[in-house]
Amino acid sequence: MAQRLVIDADGHCFEPWEDLARWMPKEYAQRAPVAFKDHSGRTRMIWEDRVMPREVGMDPGPAGPFAEHVRTGRPGERDPLARLPDMDLEGIDVAIVFGTLIALSVNGLEDRGLAAAACRAVNRWLMEGFLAAAPKRLKGVGLIPCQDPAAAAREIEWLAAHRKEGMVSAMLPTNVYGVNLGDRRFDPIFAAAQAAGLPLSIHPQTIHEGLYGVRGVMGAGCERFEKYSYVHMTAFTFELMIALMHMIGEGVFDRYPRLKVAYMEGSCGWLPFWTERLDEHFDKLRPQWPLCQRKPSEIIKSGQVALTCEPEEEILPYVLEVMGPERIMYASDYCHWDSEYPDSVRLLAGIRGLKEKDKAQVLGQNAIDWFGLRPEELPEKSVYFEREERAAVSV
Question: Residue 2 domain-assigned?
Answer without folding.
Answer: no
